[in-house]
Design goal:
- The chain has 16 helices and eleven strands.
- It is α+β, with helices and mostly antiparallel strands and about 425 residues long.
- It folds into two domains: about 210 residues, Cytochrome Bc1 Complex, Chain A, domain 1 (2-Layer Sandwich), CATH 3.30.830; about 180 residues, Cytochrome Bc1 Complex, Chain A, domain 1, CATH 3.30.830.
- Helix 2 packs across helix 8 and helix 10 packs across helix 16.
- It starts with 15 loop residues before the first helix and ends with a strand.
- The relative contact order is 0.16.
Length: about 425
């Protein structure tokens, strides 16, 4: 593997660790990012596959997450449980997560022993055992996980709201899948998904931390012999258009919980950065609009939050609030919608925008301080966009002014143009 020289970091760059990255690609297509950071004698490896819930065949919702579990249950060189035993014996940690667009696996080890992560990842990229007994056992684990999510009011509400926001679309399916689909998914379906998507030419490997000069050679040795798969990702169906505000109501828990989801542009859209700053203006910090109105001044809610979920094809803005005991849901909903209408009626002031910028920047830098987070951010950016995407998005967000924010509010904060308002009521 060859790597170009990393650019010199800038003292004014809030994400200097990105500028230290060195990129390369193996002959079989595996993208590699070395991200040196010697703040601690630790190394995180993060392997991202461009495969997730959106790629599941009909009738097998949850297959991508099911396979994530089976990646820890046996490959030719590592039997069931051996990955965890190896990790614990070396004082490290491992985990994985599945989304609609990506699945990621990561290890964190001391800098003198991280090479063993490469051996595990290369072995289970090449092949899985998929013993029927292990498949059946892990299916039961996931069925219990689904039951836990359905019993948790916020998780259950989110699944219901996203199903209504993206009706009939892969983005509306729960990552964990459905019980009936899991029962219909066995070793053959898991092996086919692994064979199609778990090749080096569909993957990005990030090695971040106290990496030495031998890292490139170790990666080449572990992954170089693996063949490319050449699988093509199935195209996404068109995103559904919502006619007006849809409502979802559940009855669960002891207090009213509100979740409003509004369609948002993809991360590459010029309207995305101002909308990100608008989300901070709405609900980041005690001086934000929704925090003041719903929580601080005449409290109707215990907590409120706003988060812009970004994606390569589509995003959504989620606003969540938990009402105080005894407060009528209609009051919370009316105050929230009134505040959103005010955002669309008049641009914010310069001082308010400056405060939102400061809060957003502080949160962003804090969230990316650790080596582990840096590895995951770099891997996600490379798998979906390019390595400069986090810096590009942050710069555009901080550059947005009152007029751009006002335009984003007019375009995306009107629920009657399309959105889902969900309530989980006692």
């Amino acid at each position: 593997m060859t790597t170009p020289p990393a650019p010199s970091p800038s003292p004014t760059d809030p994400l200097p660790w990105l500028r230290r990255a060195a990129l390369g690609r193996l002959a079989n297509g595996l993208e590699v990012c070395l991200l040196p950071n010697r703040q601690a004698e630790l190394v995180t490896t993060a392997l991202f596959y461009r495969a997730g819930g959106r790629d599941e065949p009909p009738g097998h919702a949850g297959l991508a997450h099911f396979l994530e579990h089976l990646m820890f249950k046996g490959s030719p060189g590592f039997g069931p449980g051996e990955v965890d035993r190896l990790t614990q014996a070396a004082g490290g940690l491992n985990n994985a997560f599945t989304g609609h667009n990506l699945t990621a696996y990561y290890f964190a080890f001391g800098a003198d022993r991280w090479r063993r992560a490469l051996a595990v990842e290369a072995d289970r990229m090449a092949a899985l055992t998929l013993d029927p007994a292990e498949v059946a056992s892990e299916r039961q684990v996931i069925l219990e996980e689904i039951a836990m999510f359905e019993d948790e009011p916020w998780d259950a509400l989110e699944m219901a709201v996203l199903a209504a926001l993206f009706p009939g679309h892969p983005f509306g399916r729960p990552i964990l899948g459905h019980a009936a689909d899991l029962e219909a998914t066995g070793p053959a379906e898991l092996a086919d998904f692994h064979r199609r998507f778990y090749g080096p030419d569909n993957a990005v490997l990030v090695v971040a931390g106290d990496v030495g000069p031998q890292a490139g050679a170790w990666i080449e040795e572990a992954f170089g012999p693996l063949p490319s798969r050449g699988a093509a990702r199935p195209p996404l169906p068109p995103l559904p258009a919502l006619a007006g505000l849809q409502r979802v109501e559940r009855h669960q828990g002891e207090v009213p919980r509100l979740l409003l989801a509004l369609p948002a542009p993809p991360a590459s859209d010029p309207a995305h950065p101002p909308l990100r700053l608008l989300a901070a203006l709405l609900a980041s910090g005690r001086a934000s609009r929704l925090q003041r109105r719903l929580v601080e001044e005449e409290p109707s809610c215990l907590a409120v939050s706003a988060h812009l979920h970004d994606g390569a094809e589509a995003g959504f803005l989620a606003i969540a609030a938990e009402a105080l005991p005894g407060v009528e849901p209609a009051r919370v909903e009316g105050e929230l919608l009134a505040e959103l209408a005010r955002c669309g009626a008049e641009p914010p002031g310069e001082a308010e925008v400056a405060r939102a910028r400061q809060v957003l920047l502080a949160d962003w830098v804090l969230a990316h301080e650790r080596i582990h987070e840096q590895a995951l951010v770099a891997g996600g950016a490379l798998a979906l966009f390019d390595l400069d995407e986090p810096r590009r998005t942050l710069a555009a967000t901080l550059a947005a002014g009152p007029e751009e924010i006002h335009a984003a509010a007019r375009a995306f904060l009107d629920p009657e143009r399309g959105g889902v308002l969900g309530w989980s009521l006692p």
